[in-house]
Amino acid sequence: MDDVKTLISLDEETTDDDEPVAPKVAVKSSPPPTAVVDILNDDIPTPSTGVGVGNNNSGTLMPDKDDDDLPALLDHTPSYSGNSALNGNLPPNDRDNAESEPIFRVRSRTAVASTPNYESLDYEVCENKLFQDEQKKRLTERFSLRKDIIRWIIFIQIGIITALIACSIDIIIEELSELKYMFLMTSVEKNVPQTDFTGGDLVVPFLYWILLSVVPVAFGAAMVTYIEPITAGSGIPQVKSYLNGVKIPRIVRIKTLAVKAIGVITSVVGGLAGGKEGPMIHAGAVVAAGISQGKSTTFVKDFHVFKAFRDDHEKRDFVLGGGAAGVSAAFGAPIGGMLFSLEEAASFWNQNLIWRTLVASIISVFTLNLVLSTYHGLNDFTFTGLFNLGKFDQPLKFDYFELPIFMLLGITGGLLGAAWNSLNTKINGFRKRYIPWKIGKVCEAVVVAMFGVTLACTMIYFINDCRPLGNDPTIHPVQLFCEDNEYNAVAALWFQTPEATVRSLFHDPPGSHKILTLTMFTIVYYVLSCATFGLNVSLGVFIPTALVGAAWGRLFAMVTYYLFPETEFLHPGKYALIGAAANLGGVLRMTISLSVILMETTGVETSFFFPLIIALISAKWVGDYFNEGIYDTQIEVNHVPILPWEPLPQYKGLTAREILSSPVVCIKLRDSAHYIYNVLKKCDHNGFPVVDDVQGVHRSQGRVCGIVLRSQLIVILLKSLYVENSRFWLPDTSIQTFRDVYPRYPSIESVRKLDDKINYTVDLAMFMNPSPVRVNAHDSVPRIFQVFRALGLRHMLVINNENRIAGIITRRDFIYK
Amino acid sequence: MDDVKTLISLDEETTDDDEPVAPKVAVKSSPPPTAVVDILNDDIPTPSTGVGVGNNNSGTLMPDKDDDDLPALLDHTPSYSGNSALNGNLPPNDRDNAESEPIFRVRSRTAVASTPNYESLDYEVCENKLFQDEQKKRLTERFSLRKDIIRWIIFIQIGIITALIACSIDIIIEELSELKYMFLMTSVEKNVPQTDFTGGDLVVPFLYWILLSVVPVAFGAAMVTYIEPITAGSGIPQVKSYLNGVKIPRIVRIKTLAVKAIGVITSVVGGLAGGKEGPMIHAGAVVAAGISQGKSTTFVKDFHVFKAFRDDHEKRDFVLGGGAAGVSAAFGAPIGGMLFSLEEAASFWNQNLIWRTLVASIISVFTLNLVLSTYHGLNDFTFTGLFNLGKFDQPLKFDYFELPIFMLLGITGGLLGAAWNSLNTKINGFRKRYIPWKIGKVCEAVVVAMFGVTLACTMIYFINDCRPLGNDPTIHPVQLFCEDNEYNAVAALWFQTPEATVRSLFHDPPGSHKILTLTMFTIVYYVLSCATFGLNVSLGVFIPTALVGAAWGRLFAMVTYYLFPETEFLHPGKYALIGAAANLGGVLRMTISLSVILMETTGVETSFFFPLIIALISAKWVGDYFNEGIYDTQIEVNHVPILPWEPLPQYKGLTAREILSSPVVCIKLRDSAHYIYNVLKKCDHNGFPVVDDVQGVHRSQGRVCGIVLRSQLIVILLKSLYVENSRFWLPDTSIQTFRDVYPRYPSIESVRKLDDKINYTVDLAMFMNPSPVRVNAHDSVPRIFQVFRALGLRHMLVINNENRIAGIITRRDFIYK
Q1: Cα distance from B343 to chain A (closest Cα, Å)?
Q2: What are φ and ψ of residue B191, in 5° steps?
Q3: CATH architecture of B146-375
């Protein structure tokens, strides 16, 4: 399992991973443009880059019988040893082997090896003969209605269960934090004598604090590092990649969910600078994937329900709903949740899907409301904690002249956010290079936790910010070095979860903090959050980002008021909110959903939407000038082949001819089992064009009539679905035969050698997808990109004017420059 | 102009329009399914359905020089006289004419004639040589940035101007209504002596009322009927169709906007049962189309700006933003506006587009807020009238046991809504058949207005519903037959605009009405609104629908309270809101945006989202069981070829072969000008496959290498872009040459006869779109539908396995059963 790269690059094998990635597809010298569309003729120059793989290191492909992550392993098959031997000649014995056809003249498609080898999801529905048969059987109104109803039931379940998990995490964190900080405060009060203002003994509470931080953090980090490294970080980049169509191994497992839940609880309770929101979104995605499939690989349990939904297409739709439900549960923001899913994920827009997503979000918020209201002893649905950043009681007002100020704050947010992203990326690069050991990663988390506690203690010790009790906003004010009837404002900021601190900054009455306090706090938290995100713990980045923004936003209001005491418009909570929006915009760059989430979680009026948007837009535009949002940065750093919304500008003038990979390994419509076996054994491509009208042995010059997936071919070989014995299997074979093995297809190694069936043939007509998307070699890349993305493709065949194959284009061809 | 069919079918020529539409594409007897994909061979059986059109009635194509609606006329060219002569043989002279090739063997593509002939928009970008040249010239970062900035500026302008128009309509309606109802009240008080409770003389006020209703309504109806019939109704079905990709003639003209604005003002002031919301959405769309094009056909003015945005693709995106801005301005609901656009329109999801749409919506709401706040003399942005259904001051609460009640109300709403839709469709069918004359349509509107006034007067006269003054919710209470210190609750309901009545029903304190009053009011308004929608006036259906729902929702609460006086949960405003949601869900079926709009316009808490959604879902599902939403019904009744989200169930088992139209009129890559001229002259197709490798004269058996649009061919002929004289035009010709004539392409009639250029040839290589979307004949219809819709296509070429044309599929092929 160790050789699987995680998005956050936690694994120790990747010490040299940050070397510059070799450009994948060299733009081949294209023929000079002519006005007349030149017809691609058949004599594609045979490239001299054939790779001999007769002695393939197939040992690494041997399935580990105890490992339930077989396909995940397969996903990460190291590429051929011949990677650097691109100029090697084809050994003659290999030539004989493969029915006299060199099947490995593949040029560019195997040259991508230095990056982790993420596979794509099969979002495209394979409408083969079997699928059509099933459709015909189920063409009745009743079946389609039933499937629709079941789909609704699943979405409702997703909403409920996601909310329950979110509630549990919420309540546990709240209770444990309460215990922790109560204990610390008691300890402070015990050790600092109330009468001695010159400085008491803070060492004992400090040590307690360290202990109560280090233990949970170490536990959480160890869980994440040793049990499921994919759970590190917020999970949003992973979910985003998954929804974009990249197969991230083990991202939607129940084990992942369990580790993530424990990880986030321990980290937040441990006092790291992070929030629980991101992990909740990931949790929603796992719940969605789990429920919709009706089976669990972790528990090796198949409930034999929802079988019709077992394909990547349906699963991805459910995960979209799950992510939305997670956001909704995290923020109490159903519309924000739906928009988050849309903004970050859905490339294929469908009214029904969005509608179901919205319902899942609303159900999720309702369930959350129900449980939390009950938990807090309220019996109508009025638990305002659902606005988890605190509801503004008074409608926020603003004046015309404040709009430029908001814009200025937005620009500040953009600059700070871009700097934060850049700093964080540097820290993570450093981390990846110099802390490769697992134990080191755990230690690092512990060190950061201790560092945070120390800074906090130092601040509390040295800054003497005492405020009168009475209009105190904290539940448990600490007196510390203050007079009676006063509380320590610095301790109030630190002695709670980050989320509660955001609430304080939004809603504390004016004059709750010194300027110095807040300045120090902003700087410390900025650095701390930057060091924290990227640790091997489960934590989201939303809350610390909002916290930093709220701090400097409030600070701005305080400084301005200090300089111009006659000003009246400076509601500090309002500026804290704008600051939070600006900082979030600068770091995350998710403008649509962020604005709605902020609106929903703080209950501001529609009229205050405009200032929020001004701050967000300014922050996003300024930030975009320097770098990408933090999620996209993480995705890029880890070389996940995620498809952007628009083709990269470098691709603007190119045509398909210049990015395609060729020649392509093809299979004949009716081909020998032996050939197929050899092909599968010797290359790890996932899609093979099916050709017809083949002259001689040159399959790649046949006419395209379909595409067949690796997984399908393996099932065909495993189940011996040959022409010669078709009377045995034909009656029982249906699309379900293929669906049963989803999503962990066996590897080719699990197919026995075909000694006795060496002359058997396979007729692919009923198995292949007869409607692959084909484009012409002279089609422009922006255009085919649009098709590729809109249809969620995995393979796109490039044909010439005679419908003969000219190349193949996959997701990866659109990514690297 | 009269022969143009409007969506609401106002024109008098269509008296026989509601005859059953002949099934368009007979499902051809497909070959028996075989396991092997059968390769389409070249010998397509020549259909015996060639149509001779030598003596085409091209007289109808003669351009009317005074008419600025030339392309619109062309769009509605009646089909060939040979429609019913499908079995006629090809006259030999025609065969000679067209270079010995029968160009009119077209079978199914001309058989669709009995419906209005809507054309599609060219949402697909034609990436021809000229386009690529432009791209290359503008490949610089700077150009793309500049275009992006201009796009933003346009979206911001759209938001501002739409809001200004909405404000003007709003304020004018408010002021005029105020004047009207004040005058009527004075008249009532003058004519009904305060001391005589037995019945005063209501005749004079009644006559005044009639007069003040009839005059504006007659004026508005006359404007709509005689000047711009497309402005009738709410405009939402038209905008929806446009965004779906159907070219609705004259839908986005400035003249249309002017008539619509005056029409809606007169109708609402006249007291018809309608709202101003739908027309505002239409207004937003017009503004967007107008601004983005930088020129106006109505004023024959070209500002020579925004030239890069002059194509259907860009224009449609702007119209999407305009629609959203319109919704936002109408309801003060920016998120609702964006979601409305998404739900009703966007088939191609794009993050940037949505983001711009949201910004336009927010700008629009902000502008509205600004203007209305200033108008009402407030100087911070606190004009609560922006919640145009009135803000609920107290958070609405609900108990668990109310959820089934909400569901029950939802079901009621679904039933009432379905009945309303069905009744309204019947009334409109009747109207279309029996009131074909223009003057009749105006009279009808007047009669309905009088009918409404009479009913209202009767109610006021006969129902004696007096309430004590003091907690009166109306601004100008009418005493009428009541005691001193009392006001007449019936008159209060009627003496205001429908919108204000919705507000009253939501927010009046409990006990403001008698049960009898509200029952009568509900029934009267239900019938009245049903009779009104479909009149030849500009009016939306949202407000009357919400009003009816609010009335019966409030009635439900009152009746329940009457039966069980001990119940406490029955806040009448809450039930009015749920009733309005249920009724809207039942009539409109737009669940996502409706729920958000209702939330935003009434300012309810997120926790009340759940009851709203329960009511909406129940209403939608129950309603969907019976019929479609009112907008879709209107679209269907008018045979607008709008693409649904999913393919029709009838298409589930079919393949492309069974719906395609063939043979197709093709043009050679280098063809004679004479042939092209003849083709354009004799058929009205809009897309012609460009073929190559033609053996002999049979163009339709060549290999497909592109597609060229009718409009492009006409420009080529008009500008004489021939191979033989290329040295004259080649240096100056660019994509701008073609863009200049957008959107009203000249007809073929404007091309002079090619006598001297009879032997000239056209090389289409640089003009045609070299990347048409091609599918195979055996591809399943659901699949190609997905491609067609996701890419917003107009033509889809069906090819065989050798890349020779097998047929063509257009929007219409997916519509009729």
Answers
A1: 6
A2: -90, -20
A3: Orthogonal Bundle (1.10)
